[in-house]
Amino acid sequence: MRVALVGTGNIARIHAEALRGLGGRAEIVAGVDVDGAAAKSFCRTHGIPHSGTDLARVLDTTRPDLVHVCTPPGAHLEAARTALAYGAHVLVEKPPTLTLRQFAELEAAADHSGRHVATVFQHRFGSGARRLRALHDAGVLGRPLLAICHTTWYRTQEYFDVPWRGRWDTEGGGPTMGHGIHQMDLLLAILGEWTQVHALARRQARDVDTEDLSLAHVGFANGCVASVVNSVLSPREQSYLRFDFARATIELTHLYGYGEDAWRVTPAPGHEEAVLSAWHGGERGVPSGHQAQFAAVLDALEAGARPPVTLAETRRTMRLVAAIYAASFTGSPVGPGDLGPGSPFHERMQGGGPPWRLVARQEVA
């Protein structure tokens, strides 16, 4: 599988290393960046034969089967559309677009091209998450009742001083969009469709346009309810997911990726043998990470199938992000049907603008 990387920063390095770990299943044929010197240096370091600054020209020359979009979020849509126009499948880093309107444009471009677009949500692909999903689907754990999804990370002000960070127009949001989205996607991969969100977002401590924390209560179609927290203000960093089923509590505690030792299972009284036997008898040994997802993507493309994570699955996650912003900034509960083309939160994640922008304008006046 011939692969081109668009964007040659740190995330592209992770992609290159993960692809190289797949035993020759992928050949990286090009690296593209608006910074020509960065592109050349990256390609030289990773032994990539072709570098350039003009994506269309590079695609026309190298004709990759698959393009990995690793640019800052504001450039994702245009890079993906260009790759599709040149007949390549696309794997795009999160978030795939800055808004739901842009996401609809990406879906239309994919449909028109006949090619596939998948989003990088690598936490789905560790064996622990796959085992949890299988046990839930098989009914071993009973009905899901309560979930916790907390992404409590720490980012300094210097982190946000990079020009494109902490801005709605280039990053699409704060920790709700750019940090906690991985944990929220895994939450949805296990629990399925969400139905209603109540939320609060604040700009507590960082000099940014976006929020630096959010808290949400999420209801699901299966009756489960979840607490969702996204923060970049938390010195003791942690990514924590907890699922309380009728027959067991399943917990995942990690930071940026997990292995088998990150999971904890607590069966309900009377269900110890069935739960533990099923848990320890399932798929094991694969940590979460880009390499696990890339292998699954190649498996699908080589079989002529749609690769994970599909745009339909990603749309559910993007709508949850938009719903947290909408519920926070309107003060009202929000459902999926409230986020269509007629909604300001379809056009922009911040809708008409966060409350603190209004306060700032009033102070200036």
UniProtKB/TrEMBL annotation:
Annotated ranges, domain GFO/IDH/MocA-like oxidoreductase: 130-242
Annotated InterPro entries: Gfo/Idh/MocA-like_OxRdtase_N, Gfo/Idh/MocA_Oxidoreductase, GFO_IDH_MocA-like_dom, NAD(P)-bd_dom_sf
Pfam families hit by this protein: GFO_IDH_MocA, GFO_IDH_MocA_C3
Residue span(s) of domain Gfo/Idh/MocA-like oxidoreductase N-terminal: 1-118
PANTHER family reported for this sequence: D-GLUCOSIDE 3-DEHYDROGENASE, UDP-N-ACETYL-2-AMINO-2-DEOXY-D-GLUCURONATE OXIDASE
Name listed for the protein in its UniProt record: Oxidoreductase
